[in-house]
Design brief:
Elements lengths: L1 H25 L4 H24 L3 E6 L29 H34 L1 E2 L4 E3 L6 E3 L5 E5 L7 H17 L1 H14 L4 H24 L4 H18 L15 H11 L7 H20 E8 L5 E4 L12 E10 L5 H11 L8 H17 L7 E2 L3 E8 L2 E11 L5 E9 L10 H6 L11 H17 L6 E9 L4 E9 L6
Parallel strand pairs: 1-6, 3-5, 8-11, 12-14
Antiparallel strand pairs: 2-3, 4-5, 6-7, 9-11, 10-11, 13-14
């Protein structure tokens, strides 16, 4: 889970940084153009988790020729225990705490968004027609409500405004409706609620809100209104809000906000916005699409240089990335991740696979990853996750290609054996072999570090013991119950002895 969140966070940060760079590169200054670009980034961020988890990936051969830092985030399947044995919990204690914290904050933000949306719809339903204008006593400033058919709602005292102010306000809010700013802002709030842990989500919501107001300001000024007169109209609206003591703040509504001073300064300083050529806008949109696609789908691969100096691309677990038809041996092992005794894991596995030759890279990396997982599980790290290994050619030793394997590890918590229970099936009938004899087959006692290898070996000895007693079809069904608080595993073996054949 942590790895998925990290990958999403990095890709989202790259999306924002890439969009900012494109805006700088194309010299787009108009608020409407920048709002469009950031809306594209918002849409990409919303679909990014789905793409990160299940979307196709494209290998980008851009990294320098160094050993990869391990894995694309998937876990490596290794030989499991017999059916029903040592089942893993879905989440560790730390992951469960993080998940609960995320859900609590996200639920509060989503609840606020839902309540605001309901209030907005209620205000729209209860709005009163006054001379072809919708009015409401709930607002003290003009607002635009609705996603697909936005509607402008004015305060009840709108008739007291001068004629010029009424035209400016209706033009400004009508521009919000035409641009569907309410829908974009609602999506920005949804994005913030879902990804509240990422600063980009908060920044996007704030930036889109301000750019929407500036874009509408530019549209009003482009129709020939004097900047000073328009600024004075905005100030009059702000004074109305101040006199009322409060203003309506409902999710999805566009209205003058805390950036009013900044907007007025921009209006008086810049005046009318310079039109943007279609070519620049199309170029910026194309660059944005390419960048979003690259950051969403790109997975970096590493390159190496062969002894002859020719650069060769090495892809993860790819047999074609090294010379085919030759033997492969483990030349070195790199263990990535904040783990205990990483040097010991490396040395033990190098020793275990010394002088062992494999037919292909996939066989080598799978065997090494399984050995690393076994090493951790023998030391009590029952929930260890070994991510997909990466391979890097080191050179040749005669006819054998030596390979550096990089393995990323999430070791989890260390567990000890809590209790070892023996149960007969059906229950209530005495076992043919005493419980004490069965327990003696396990060279591990309550309080010892939980050793998966030893538990497997112990079950194998119990199976052989029953076969020696004439129970050829005896079945052992192990079950592990994890206590994440005490870091303890209670182990139960259900034995179905079957028929006895002397």
């Amino acid at each position: 889970m942590e790895r998925f969140i990290l990958e999403f966070s990095v890709r989202a940060a790259l999306l924002v940084a890439g969009t900012a760079f494109i805006l700088y590169l194309t010299r787009l200054r108009a608020a409407a153009a920048k709002h469009t670009m950031w809306t594209v980034a918002l849409a990409a961020m919303l679909v990014l988790p789905i793409w990160t988890g299940w979307g196709p990936k494209a290998h980008l051969r851009l990294l320098p020729p160094v050993a990869p830092a391990g894995g694309s985030g998937g876990t490596l399947a290794v030989e499991p225990l017999p059916r029903g044995s040592l089942s893993l919990p879905l989440l560790s204690t730390r992951q469960a705490v993080l998940l609960v914290a995320y859900l609590v904050v996200s639920s509060l933000l989503l609840l606020r968004l839902v309540v605001g949306t309901i209030h907005a719809r209620r205000m729209l339903r209860n709005a009163v027609f006054d001379d072809d204008v919708r009015t409401s006593s709930l607002c003290s400033a003009p607002v635009t409500v609705g996603f697909f058919e936005p509607v402008v709602i004015l305060p009840e005292k709108w008739r007291l405004w001068p004629e010029a102010q009424r035209k400016v306000v209706l033009m400004h809010e009508g521009e919000h409706a035409r641009r569907r700013d309410c829908l974009v802002q609602w999506l920005a709030l949804l994005n913030r609620a879902l990804f509240w842990f990422h600063p980009a989500a908060w920044w996007l919501e704030h930036a889109l809100s301000g750019l929407a107001e500036e874009a509408c300001d530019d549209a009003v000024l482009a129709r020939g209104y004097d900047p000073r007169v328009y600024a004075e109209c905005l100030l009059d609206v702000a004074r109305s809000v101040s006199r009322s003591g409060s203003r309506l703040n409902v999710a999805g509504m566009a209205m003058p906000g805390g950036r009013l001073g900044q907007r007025i300064g921009r209006i008086l300083k810049s005046g009318r916005a310079t039109p943007i050529s279609h070519l620049r806008m199309i170029s910026a949109a194309a660059l944005s699409l390419i960048a979003c696609t690259a950051f969403a789908t790109g997975t970096l691969d590493h390159a190496r240089r062969s002894p002859s100096g020719q650069e060769v691309t090495v892809q993860r677990n790819s047999e074609s990335s090294l010379r085919p038809g030759k033997g492969y041996a483990l030349g070195d092992l790199k263990v990535d991740g904040s783990v205990h005794d990483a040097a010991g894991v490396r040395d033990r596995n190098l020793s275990a696979w010394k002088n062992h030759e494999f037919d292909n890279i996939s066989e080598l990396t799978s065997a090494v990853a399984a050995g690393v997982r076994k090493d951790f599980q023998e030391r009590g790290y029952f929930q260890v996750v070994v991510h997909k290994p990466a391979s890097h050619a080191l050179g040749r030793n005669g006819a054998t290609e030596t390979v550096l394997v990089t393995v990323a590890i999430t070791e989890g918590d260390q567990f000890r054996l809590g209790s070892l229970l023996i149960q007969n099936v059906p229950r209530g009938r005495a076992l043919s072999v005493s419980e004490a004899t069965i327990r003696d087959q396990f060279h591990i006692h309550p309080g010892d570090l939980f050793n998966v290898t030893e538990m497997r070996a112990g079950m194998g000895r119990v199976k052989q013991l029953y076969e020696s007693q004439g129970y050829q079809n005896a079945e052992l069904e192990p079950r592990s119950d994890l206590d994440n608080a005490d870091h303890r595993i209670d182990f139960t073996i259900r034995i179905t002895e079957g028929p006895h054949k002397p």
